[in-house]
Fold this sequence. Notes:
This protein is α+β, with helices and mostly antiparallel strands.
Amino acid sequence: xxxxxxxxxxxxxxxxxxxxxxxxxxxxxxxxxxxxxxxxxxxxxxxxxxxxxxxxxxxxxxxxxxxxxxxxxxxxxxxxxxxxxxxxxxxxxxxxxxxxxxxxxxxxxxxxxxxxxxxxxxxxx
Length: 125
Ligand SMILES: CC(C)(COP(=O)(O)OP(=O)(O)OC[C@H]1O[C@@H](n2cnc3c(N)ncnc32)[C@H](O)[C@@H]1OP(=O)(O)O)[C@@H](O)C(=O)NCCC(=O)NCCS
């Protein structure tokens, strides 16, 4: 996330370390494992009105291999199976991630100063 964070707020090791220590809660994280190897982390909040993908980060050595696509597709299927939208935030400074989400059916629901709120709504019955 460094490039997008740097472009949005600037990068400061001490600030990033403090944010990490304050907000990193392992109990809310799920580790992505492929062929027995830890390759990433996600965090999902499953609510009654929507499901929110709080975090998805794949180890740079494993990016671009379709892992993110697979995870998000599965999550969309699960969420739409409950008749709910899947939502997420993406920084304006992260156009590659936004492109991926658009390819997977997400649209921009709201434009904020630093980020977009994106949604993938369930098909109408
Ligand atoms: C975004 C991310 C989760 C996608 O997972 P992935 O397994 O690499 O994605 P896939 O292989 O399924 O799909 C490839 C697409 O992901 C996007 N992508 C690839 N590398 C990326 C990167 N470093 N940062 C952001 N998006 C990236 C591109 O849209 C790419 O498609 P393209 O090759 O046509 O440009 C992953 O690249 C990542 O962790 N990036 C850094 C952290 C981040 O940006 N997280 C999302 C925050 S909203």
